[in-house]
C-alpha cells in the first residue's frame, strides 16, 4: 500500500516536472510570438476582418506567415481558392518538418502524436527537435504538449489583443522584437554546432540552397525553404552518425 | 461568410500535411540513411529559416538584422540560455541608432 502510494507520487512529480519544463522551454517562442501575433491582429482588423474571424484564424490555422499572407490577400480582394492554395504552398514545409519530428517521436503513442502534429510550426519544430531526448523519457509527451500549448496560447492571445487594442507595444520596441525568433533559432543552433561542427555544414548547405532559390531562381519563400531544408538535410546522410543523440 | 470559408480551407490544407507524418511513422520503418536524413532536417531547417530571412527584420536595412544576429551568435557562443540570447538581440536592435 505504502509502496503503491510512493509510486504514484513519483508519477505525479514526473508529470509536473515535464509540464514545467515544457513551458520553460517554450517561453522564448512566447516572447517571439506575442509581438508578431499582435501585429497580425492589427493588420487583420485593418483588412476588414472581425475580431471573431481574426481570432478564429489563429485558432484553426496557427501558422504565422500564411495568416499574414491571407490577410493581405483578403485586403486586395483575392479569391478564397487563391488564398487557400497559397497557404498550402507556404505551409508545405511543415510536412517535411513533421516527418522529421514524428520519426523522433516514435516512442510516443499515436494518440499523442496526432494532436502534437497539429501544433507544429517552424518555431515549435525547431525548439522541440533540439530537445529530442524528452521523447524517450517517461511522460515525454507532456513535455511537448505543454511546450506547444505555450506557443499556441501566446499566438491566439496576441492575435486577439492586436484585434482589440491595436498596437499596444510601442512601435520601436515591437520593431526590435522582430529579431526575437531569429535570435531564438541562432540560440538553438549555435550550442549544437559547438558540440558537433559537422552540423554547421548541413545548415550552411541549406542556407546556400535557400539563397540560390530565392535570389537566382526567384522562387517563392515557401518553396525555397522546403528545398533548402530537404536538400540541405540530404548532406546529413553523409554527415550524421546512425544513433546521433541530437 | 467568405472569411469563414477561407479559414476552414486554410485550416484543412495546413492540418493535413502536418498530420500525415504521424500516421506514416506508425506504418513505416526507415532505412539508416533515411533516419540520418530526417535527423539532419532540424539543422537544415534552422539554416533556411535564419538566412536570408534575418535580413528583413527591418525593411530596407539588412544591417539591423545582421547586427542582431551577430550579438545572438556571440551570446550563445558564451553559453547563455536561449531566453537571454533572445533578450540580448532585442536590446541590440532596440538600442541601434536609427
Describe the structure in your own words.
The complex is a heterodimer of chains A (246) and B (98). Chain A is mainly alpha-helical. Helix content of chain A is 79%, strand content 0%. Chain A has twelve helices and no strands. Chain A has helices spanning 2-46, 51-60, 64-75, 80-91, 93-104, 110-118, 122-129, 140-165, 171-176, 180-195, 198-216, 221-239. The longest helix of chain A is centred in the first third of the chain and has 45 residues, at 2-46. The model of chain A has no long low-confidence stretch (mean pLDDT 92). Chain B has 98 residues and is an all-alpha fold. Chain B has one domain (2-95). Helix content of chain B is 77%, strand content 0%. Chain B contains four helices and no strands. In chain B, α3 packs antiparallel against α4. The longest helix of chain B has 26 residues, at 2-27. The interface between A and B is large, with 102 and 73 residues.
Amino acid at each position: 500500500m505504502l509502496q503503491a502510494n510512493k509510486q504514484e507520487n513519483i508519477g505525479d512529480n514526473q508529470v509536473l516536472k515535464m509540464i514545467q519544463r515544457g513551458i520553460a522551454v517554450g517561453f522564448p517562442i512566447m516572447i517571439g510570438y506575442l509581438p508578431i501575433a499582435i501585429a497580425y491582429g492589427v493588420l487583420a482588423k485593418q483588412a476588414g476582418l472581425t475580431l471573431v474571424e481574426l481570432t478564429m484564424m489563429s485558432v484553426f490555422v496557427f501558422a504565422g506567415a500564411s495568416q499574414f499572407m491571407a490577410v493581405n490577400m483578403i485586403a486586395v480582394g483575392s479569391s478564397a481558392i487563391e488564398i487557400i492554395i497559397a497557404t498550402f504552398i507556404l505551409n508545405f514545409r511543415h510536412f517535411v518538418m513533421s516527418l522529421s519530428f514524428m520519426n523522433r517521436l516514435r516512442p510516443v503513442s499515436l494518440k499523442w502524436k496526432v494532436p502534437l502534429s497539429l501544433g507544429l510550426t517552424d518555431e515549435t519544430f525547431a525548439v522541440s527537435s533540439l530537445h529530442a531526448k524528452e521523447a524517450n523519457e517517461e511522460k515525454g509527451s507532456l513535455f511537448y504538449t505543454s511546450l506547444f500549448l505555450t506557443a499556441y496560447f501566446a499566438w491566439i492571445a496576441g492575435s486577439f489583443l492586436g484585434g482589440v487594442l491595436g498596437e499596444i507595444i510601442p512601435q520601436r520596441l515591437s520593431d526590435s522584437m522582430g529579431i526575437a525568433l531569429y535570435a531564438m533559432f541562432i540560440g538553438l543552433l549555435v550550442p549544437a554546432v559547438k558540440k558537433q561542427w559537422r552540423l554547421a555544414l548541413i545548415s550552411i548547405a541549406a542556407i546556400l540552397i535557400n539563397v540560390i532559390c530565392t535570389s537566382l531562381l526567384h522562387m517563392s519563400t515557401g518553396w525555397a525553404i522546403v528545398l533548402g531544408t530537404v536538400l540541405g538535410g540530404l548532406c546529413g546522410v553523409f554527415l550524421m552518425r546512425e544513433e546521433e543523440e541530437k | 461568410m467568405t472569411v469563414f470559408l477561407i479559414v476552414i480551407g486554410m485550416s484543412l490544407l495546413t492540418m493535413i500535411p502536418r498530420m500525415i507524418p504521424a500516421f506514416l511513422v506508425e506504418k513505416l520503418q526507415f532505412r539508416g540513411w533515411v533516419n540520418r536524413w530526417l535527423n539532419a532536417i532540424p539543422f537544415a531547417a534552422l539554416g533556411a529559416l535564419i538566412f536570408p530571412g534575418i535580413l528583413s527584420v527591418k525593411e530596407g536595412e539588412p544591417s539591423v538584422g545582421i547586427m542582431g544576429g551577430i550579438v545572438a551568435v556571440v551570446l550563445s557562443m558564451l553559453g547563455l540560455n536561449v531566453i537571454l540570447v533572445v533578450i540580448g538581440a532585442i536590446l541590440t536592435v532596440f538600442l541601434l541608432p536609427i
